[in-house]
Amino acid sequence: MKLKTNTLKGLLYLVALLITTFISCTKDTYDFNTFASNQWDPQFATALVNGSLGINNFNLTDSNSYLQVVSDSVIKFVWSGNISTFHTSDFIPGFSSDPVIDTISLNANQQLGLSQAAIGSTYTISATQVANLSAQKASQIFIDSIKLKTGTFSVGIRNTFNDLANVTITIPGIIKGGNPYTTQLSIKPQDSSTAIFDISNMMIDMTDSGTTSNYLAINYSVTFTKKSSSTAGRLIFSNQINNPSLKVFYGDVRQQNFFTNEVKKVPLNVFKYKEKSGSLKLNDATISLSFINTFGVPLGFTVTQLKGLDVSNDSFYLNVGGIVPAPFIIPASPGLGVQSNSTLLMNKNNPIANGKLMDIPTFFSNLPTAFLPKFDAVSNPGLPSTKFHNFIQDTSKGIINAKITVPLNLTLNNYAINDTFPYTFSSVQNVQSFTLRTYFTNGFPVGIGAKLVFVDALNNTIYTLNATDSALITPATVGSNGLVTAPSITQHDFLLGGTIVPNLDKVKNVIFTGTISSPGNGSQPAIIYPNYTLGVKIGAKATIKN
Amino acid sequence: MKSVKHLVFISILLIGSFKVFSQDELTLYNIKSLPENRFQNPGKMPESRINISLPVISSTFVGLSNSGFAFSDLVAKRPQDDSLILTTANMLGKLSANNLLSTSFSTEILGVGFRVKQNYYSFDARIKTNVDLSYTKDMMQFLLQGNSAFVGQQKNLGLTLNSTLYTEYGLGFTHITKDCKLSYGGRFKILSGIANINTKQANIAVATDSINYAISATPNVLVNSSLIDTGSISNNAIGSNVFGPNKGFGIDLGAEYKLTDKITLSASVVDLGFINWKSNVNNYQSDPLHPNFTFSGFDVTKFFNGTTVQPYLDTLSDSLKNTFYPIKTNNSYKTSLSTKIFAGATYKLTSGLDAGILLYGRFVNSKFYSGIALSLNEELGKWLNASVSFSRVNSTSNLGFGLSANLRPLQIYVVSDNIFALSHIDQTHGTNLHFGINISIGRVKNSEKVTAKK
User: Fold this and answer.
1) Global ipTM
2) How far is A471 from chain B (nearest CA, A)?
3) Out of A357, A462, A475, A495, which residue is the most buried by the measure of CB atoms under 10 Å away?
4) Kindly report the CA angle at A358 between A353 and A361, in degrees rounded to 5?
5) What is the pTM of this model?
6) Architecture of domain A43-59+412-544
7) Does the A93-252 domain belong in CATH 3.30.160?
């Protein structure tokens, strides 16, 4: 036992010795100025983008367009708006009225009668004259009757006789107070006088008294009061319609042509993301033109050309060349203040132009960013020799509204869309690398491949995020009835490594290119319904520099 | 000797299953010559009739421990050029699910103790500070590796701090029976809190979605603080902090029993008590009206409808602020002392040599930490006492050492639970140092009396 105790004591002293030895000889030092960099690189993960996108979120509409969303029905893109309006001035820009001057001398019997009249007695003669009014239009317009909003009719008479002349002027084509419009002038010898008729708001019959269209008859009754024995002299009549403006026209505007130019550029935002590659086929599309006509003039209407502009402003056409067998007739208004309505529907079945379908869906399959229609219209279609009976009011209008309907029933095969938007990375100087994760829950029956090219101010590529194999977003599963039965889920991780990240602060723009395919690698149609959504979740893991 | 073998065998088993924290003194407990061990067990009768502790020089204790990792676990030299590198993965590999970083310091302002017959009376005034920072491995992993490590999981990022500076005034009493077999005692303490930071709750449950890394965070935070009025310091009124309104009470209880001539058992509970904090109190609590913050990403529709995302950012910022900006109140609060439990046994190998075992437990931040140590304690004549302890700390072995020179009436001592830390501080999970010079008069050896009576 003593030996054991001594051993323990010895152990105690040995430990003490060892402790002393260790303390004195073991030393380690750290020079904190020699810390190597990049030793602490935490990686933080955070969500970036989240949400669900329906078709309405894609900002495809503008003030004239909308998406027609009806439950259980295919979504339709609709552009609706006015593409042309024509007014009275397009038929009758204005009027012209040439002055008419007639000189009346007494015939032999009248000279005899006047010479036999005693001084102070009277002697009466009569005379007629016409005034003219014509429309300012190349084609002759026949005015049967007219009511002017403004206008005066002036009649000037010069008397070169030595006798006093009392003249009664009667216009049988203008009825005032139940009687022909009449006035009197008293003209001294060797004198002249003028009568002004206010003919505004009066119906002027330009066929009365046997005149044909465009002429107004004037009757004069001149009573001389004998002042001398001389019978020499003349009466000079002059007339003119002044400052005429139309209120109501009745007559025949004949056959006039309208709309020889493109009537309007219609922007179609639904197709603004389009690029020129891949194939796309719209399986349906219609153009509906509705006409409102308050002219008492029928119009023969023909679509002569449909022009589209692609993203590069290059043109493509559907040259329809007219509607066979006959132009579309826009009926005349049945009466003053009443409008006629008519609609021309153009779709994949109607109408036939030049013996073949106009094929509106094919035209829109080019996805025009703008649509420029061109029409031809002629008034009073039919046999030119026919006498037409038209009326036009100053307030008459012809309105053409268009409604373009594109059901989102389409077949796409690697169809490309693109867009460029400004984008800058912030705070990337603190990032060593990061991994971008995309996670899509796709309820649309289309698959999307995508390429994001991050470019600098000079469009030099900094980084390309490439997933153009249609796998970025796989299409939803579609049943035999064309309806989506189950959404697809696609997840991708994109690594932006340490060689890329330092250059990301130069990025100014991102060029997005997407390729879209409908099911069956573009062989089957994709029909888009309102309840379809694309769930988007994007997050990133960023490794932070120390 | 068979008993010794059994004791050693059991000790080895226990050491393997305990973690010990070196800021808590284990070596000191069984050094009989030092009256300072009364602070660990007031039931131990001091060997000196009169003990006087002088300000600062008599008893100063400094302890530091980190159960999670050592400095060298986190920082290493790169072999090729000796540059320092952070070895975070290595460090994280060393961490337990819950870890504790502790520092403590205490020094005696004044201490007087004297023995009258079988009773010992004492008065002590000490300044003590403890900083206990509990942290989870998840928290460290979050800081060092980011939340990517937790994708698809919800983690509780716990961080609990209890930091206390207070003055302790203790009246002690110890009684030893006439046969000297049993001694027991206690200390009643009046506490005066100076400063405290206490995280009653400090947990943020963070979940990161496995798909798009959406982050949700639910903070549950209640931090109380009672800090020193710096204005009073500048006005030289520090006394108002030492004897301030933050009153508390504490008690230590202990006993020692000689089972046989060779075997002595002892046990104690110290620092049972609390402090009421009323001075300069601030409470910071997470807003129950905004319990969650979730960021699932910016609304994708905003990118398509042309509207600016700024309103969304503003909303996000408000949500972040509402969730994490705490509500501040000024309600008084109570903190408990970090209660410690000791249970030990010694075996007298020779008349001057004891072998000891000590089981130890401590409540820190509502968790119980336990540990174990073995020791050999030797009286080297009248003048010198030496102890060696062996403890296992955080899966590492620590060698403690204590030395006491009895130069009557002066007693000079130094004790540490991890002596190697003085030369390998970078590799240690903790160490402590307790040193001082006591005035000890009239030494009485309790054990000899028992022997003499027999």
Assistant:
1) 0.72
2) 18
3) A475
4) 170
5) 0.68
6) Sandwich (2.60)
7) no
